[in-house]
Write a structure and sequence with these properties.
InterPro entries: LysR_HTH_N, LysR_subst-bd, WH-like_DNA-bd_sf, WH_DNA-bd_sf. The protein is an alpha/beta fold. The protein is built from ten helices and 13 strands. The chain folds into three domains: 6-87, Arc Repressor Mutant, subunit A (Orthogonal Bundle); 91-165 and 271-295, D-Maltodextrin-Binding Protein, domain 2 (3-Layer(aba) Sandwich), CATH 3.40.190; 168-267, Periplasmic binding protein-like II (D-Maltodextrin-Binding Protein, domain 2, 3-Layer(aba) Sandwich). The longest helix is centred in the first third of the chain and has 29 residues, at 62-90. The radius of gyration is 23 Å and the shape is globular. The protein starts with 5 loop residues before the first helix and ends with a helix. The relative contact order is 0.15.
Length: 296
C-alpha cells in the first residue's frame, strides 16, 4: 500500500469543515498555496478529484463526500489510539492550559483541584480568555480547554461537560427606576438599552448574551458593545444601558452603584467545557471527567 501522508489527510479534514482555502490555512498555520499543494498531492494518491473550487464556492465532490465519511471516524480512532498509548506509557503528564471567561466559579476550581489530585504529574495553568472571543483561544491552541458561556456551534470544536445552569440577572444602574424591583420579567428588557459584546464572537453567541427582542417579540434597544465584563459594568454604572449576567457572576461583582435584579422568562445561562477536536489529548479528556465529577 502506498505510504499515507498524515498532513494531507489533516488538511482535507479541515478543508471539508471550512470549505474555504484561506481559513483552512489559518487553522493549519500554513499558506493557502500550501493547502492547495497538499490537496493536489492527496488527490493524486487517490486518483480522483475530492474538491470542486470555483470563484464563488468550494464544495466536496461525490468522491470527496464518500472519502470524508470513511476518513473522519478512522482519523478519530487513530488519534484516540495514539492518545491512549501515550497515557498508558506516561500517564497524564505535562501541562494543561484551562481557559475561562469572567471568573472561574467554584465548580471549575473544584474540578482543577480534583484533576491535580488525581494526576499529580500534570501541571495546570489557568488563563482568562476574553468575553468577546470565547472560541478564538481554543482554535489557536492558546488554551487546551475552555469553560465558556453557551451556546456553542463551531466547526471542529467539541462540547464536553455542560454545567452551572443559573437564572439570569440584569445588571442595572442603582439610580434607574427598575433597580428597586425584586424581579423583572423578560418583557421589561424592551425598556432600556442592552449592553452586548463586540469582537470576534460569532453572531449567534452575541445574540444569546444580548437578545435583540423579548420572548413576546418586542424589540430590545441595542446598547454599547463591549469586550470585557469590567467595561460593561462601567457603562452600566454610568447609565449607558443594562447587561445580562448569570447569577454567580452577578454575585462576584457586588458594587454600590449597580443593582443585580433576577429576570424571569429567559433561558437559563449555562457553561460548557470545549476543546478543539484536532488538539484533543488525554489531558483534556481527563479534565472533562474531573469537571463532570465536580459538577455532579
Amino acid at each position: 500500500m502506498e505510504r499515507l501522508e498524515i498532513r494531507e489527510l489533516e488538511c482535507f479534514l479541515v478543508l471539508a469543515e471550512e470549505l474555504h482555502f484561506g481559513r483552512t490555512g489559518e487553522r493549519l498555520y500554513v499558506s493557502q498555496g500550501r493547502v492547495s499543494q497538499l490537496l493536489r498531492s492527496l488527490e493524486r494518491r487517490i486518483g480522483g478529484a475530492l474538491v470542486e473550487r470555483s470563484s464563488r464556492r468550494v464544495r466536496l465532490t461525490p468522491l470527496g463526500e464518500r472519502f470524508l465519511a470513511g476518513l473522519r471516524p478512522a482519523y478519530r480512532e487513530l488519534s484516540d489510539v495514539v492518545a491512549d498509548a501515550r497515557t498508558a506509557a506516561r500517564g497524564v503528564e505535562g501541562e494543561l492550559r484551562i481557559g475561562f471567561q469572567g471568573s472561574a466559579d467554584e465548580r471549575v476550581t473544584d474540578a482543577i483541584e480534583l484533576f491535580q489530585r488525581t494526576h499529580p504529574g500534570c501541571a495546570t495553568e489557568i488563563v482568562e480568555i476574553p468575553l468577546c472571543d470565547p472560541f478564538g483561544p481554543v482554535r489557536s491552541a492558546e488554551v487546551d480547554v475552555a469553560v465558556v458561556l453557551l451556546p456553542v456551534d463551531e466547526p471542529g470544536l467539541v462540547l464536553g461537560t455542560v454545567f452551572s445552569e443559573n437564572q439570569q440577572t440584569l445588571a442595572i444602574a442603582a439610580r434607574h427606576p427598575l433597580s428597586d424591583r425584586a424581579t423583572l420579567c423578560a418583557e421589561d428588557l424592551a425598556e432600556l438599552p442592552l449592553i452586548g459584546f463586540g469582537g470576534p464572537a460569532p453572531e449567534y453567541w452575541r445574540r444569546a448574551q444580548a437578545p435583540p427582542s423579548t420572548p413576546g417579540g418586542r424589540p430590545v434597544p441595542a446598547g454599547p458593545a463591549v469586550r470585557s465584563l469590567q467595561e460593561g459594568l462601567t457603562l452600566v454604572a454610568a447609565g449607558r444601558g443594562a447587561m445580562l449576567l448569570c447569577r454567580p457572576t452577578a454575585a462576584s461583582c457586588n458594587r454600590g452603584d449597580i443593582r443585580f435584579v433576577p429576570v424571569t422568562g429567559l433561558p437559563a445561562s449555562r457553561l460548557g467545557l470545549v476543546w478543539h477536536r484536532d488538539h484533543e489529548t488525554a489531558r483534556s479528556r481527563a479534565f472533562a471527567r474531573a469537571l463532570t465529577d465536580a459538577a455532579a
